[in-house]
Write the structure tokens for this entry.
Amino acid sequence: MIFTHLKRQDFFLAALSGGLLSLSFPVFDLWPLAWFFLVPLLLCIRGKGGKGAFLLGTFAGVIAYLGILYWIVVAVHRYGNIPLPLAIPVLLLLVLYLSLYWGAFSYLCLYFKERAGWISILAFPALWVGLEYLRSFLLTGFPWALLGYSQYLNTPLVQIADVTGVYGISFLIILINTILFLWCINWRDGRRMPLKGTIVAMVLVALSLAYGAWKIHLPLTNGKPFMIGVIQGNIAQDVKWDRGFQWETLEIYQKLTFGLKDASPQLIVWPETAIPSYFPSGTELDGEVGAIPKRLKTHLLFGSLSCRQGEEGIEVYNSTFLLSPTSQILGRYDKIHLVPFGEYIPLSQFFPFFNALVGIGNISPGKEAVIFHLPEGTFGTLICFEVIFPELCREFVRKEADFMVTVTNDAWFGRTSASYQHLALATFRSIENRLWLVRAANSGISAFIDPWGRIHKASGLFTREVLTEEISIKRGKMTFYTKYGDLFAIICFLLGMGLIGHALIRRVRP
């Protein structure tokens, strides 16, 4: 039996690893804990069989993701309109799925004995990063709470993301965890300490910090600064789609927006689905919205539903529109990467009755990364959940976006840690591509993020606010990450697979 070799202490240590990682993410933000979170798990799987290691790793992952992603219940229940008894299994299934990567990591670690020296030191971080990369796109991908995101407040260290993406930070964290683990077991067993590996790990971290310090103080080649205004309307989720509240919603946004008259912003940004209707709707609502940029002589970007005739009937999109100072529609972007169970039900084409579970109906995905044009420069928009996918942001920047805007409606998270986590993840898109990112959220957290991932003028949660910031547009060469994407993660994946192959060959040799 699997459990015969497992003790309560093993499960305690596995749970400790999961708990430490959970605390390293927002809202606790105890990011130093991430640098040794894995040590208890590595200690408890040592000497276990494959099944035992897999079980302990999965258990550690369950503890970690229950602590980080508990808000999924709130999200799918409030936003997706899924009944609470069904929302809880959605959370548990997602947590279990993500935890399987921890189980796989723990199982694969058994191939590398600590006596293997350099192979173990390289294999553990390479395997972890390879598995993180795998889950970033497998089954549509869910790269939320990747290990490196825990360090978003560690500004000097995270600057390497413009080369390696978030995966480079994950690699360094697991590398240090591995060294600490080797020190623990070698000290306990009276063996020689891994001094060479420790020196290499320290040098890599030191070089990363030095690179970050250099980048932070290195001026960017930017265009002339200009002003952007962000409106946070804080429209309650329970009335947001109430037809009787549409005009009151518009009046709230009008009043807040007209307060920007003296600031004279070149662009005003409203959040995702700020217009709780279709646009254009063919009603008076269109004229009222169009009058706002005309009155302020500025551009207005806002979120709304849109629709068009498709091959199989009317298709509904989650969109952003850019209006000119003369009220012309200059462009429209349709959200490409949709939220499962929020904007569509997976496999609903095979189980049509599932569609009734979605509160606003199945949304159709967009097909193109649209670039919006201002006299001052160009930009792209990411809608809500899309900001967690670095490859999508890269696509806009490679199409010559000078800055990025992300609009979201985080009201469906409630007062959970999700809004803080969502903001933390967004900071990496700025670092990876070295540009400003403007964030407009219905209920918070709205903010401006500079090219070094530093958060400026963050709003409160569930408040009505008007934010302004003078930003400059990106000029000059693309970053290594913008050009080549997740090359580092792919190398780690291949390295991990190669090391596993090497370990297997050594095992089968007589």
User: Anything to note?
Assistant: The longest strand covers residues 299-310. The CA atoms of residues 24 and 30 lie 4 Å apart. The longest helix spans residues 84-109.
